[in-house]
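We modelled each protein-ligand pair independently. The example shown here corresponds to the nicotinamide-adenine-dinucleotide entry; the chain sequence is given first, followed by the ligand as SMILES.
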Amino acid sequence: MPITKPLDRMPGAAQAALNAIVVDKVDKEIVRALRREGVRVREVPGIKRVELLKEIAGYEILIGRTRLAVDSEMIEQGKRLRIVGRAAVGTDNIDFKTAERNGIKVVNAPGAATESVAELALTLTFMALRGVYNGSAKLKNGEFLKNSGLELAGKTIGIVGFGRIGSRFAELLRPFNVTILVNDIAKMNGEIKNAGATSVEMHELLARSDIVSLHVNMEVNNGAIMDDSSFGIMKDGAILVNTVRAKAVDMHALQRALDIGRLGFYASDVLWNEPPKEPAELEIIQRENVLITPHIGAQTTEAQARVAEVMIPGLLEALKGLAREEVVMGFA
Ligand SMILES: NC(=O)c1ccc[n+]([C@@H]2O[C@H](COP(=O)([O-])OP(=O)(O)OC[C@H]3O[C@@H](n4cnc5c(N)ncnc54)[C@H](O)[C@@H]3O)[C@@H](O)[C@H]2O)c1
């Protein structure tokens, strides 16, 4: 049965049908599922934050990926907002406290991109070891340069964060005859041992690893995990792979670590601003020993279809929740 007359955060302002705004490109199934429930959907992929802030007051449902923050300002402007659908894994730029205080339900797609991100971390690791990108870019420019690289076999890899993606990355590494060290604040020693890896303190992981790959969830971290002191512990010329969030790495500490050769290569899928705009990040992108992809971790056909699969039941449940509230409040 289509859901109508939503409970509104503005008393007395209930309206005939729910309205959703879709602010990023998401799988069509998500839009279809909402329309099947009678929700009016407006698709404006790529809408700028300033424009959304002006429009958000007209919508009960906001659907997007991780591009736009749902912070206190957005929630304050979104007077009618009741459901935030995040067609992604990370929810770190959602202000959960303010959302909860305002009765807003957040629905995301945990696990949907695990395989895609783990595979990208492995890709970035190989690209860093072999200078694949620079070799190809130079060739396109007419330079035939046979730079020497390193094998993965025999290396020590440090995985920081052993949740869905970190543990899958460890599985992918298994055939390569590597030593895997893991640090996770949740201390999952049993799982880590079963994966053929060794659980160590962060200090030891940084000191021993040739390659460090970040797989933490930033929702539980207040600041950068990689700063001057952590770079100071790393081996000279080590590789850092970051498929998490740019804020896991202190931008200026990264510049200093690259300047002195402490870090041999930085391979990342994420930027501090997406698209980048700060002078320091624009400078980092241009370095020969830096390779940054434009946040494509979940950008596979398979992951996007899985996002819809994982997210739609949660969205439908949240819609039912709204309908139940209406009945209790006597709107039905
Ligand atoms: N690049 C992309 O497009 C893309 C796509 C999906 C997810 N991600 C990122 O990957 C992250 C991880 O995803 P997941 O599904 O594996 O999450 P998860 O919640 O399953 O695992 C995160 C793990 O990190 C651990 N952890 C948190 N802080 C830590 C710290 N300071 N030190 C050590 N361990 C710590 C947690 O205990 C947990 O086990 C997401 O939060 C998201 O930011 C990126």
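The first helix runs from residue 28 to 36.
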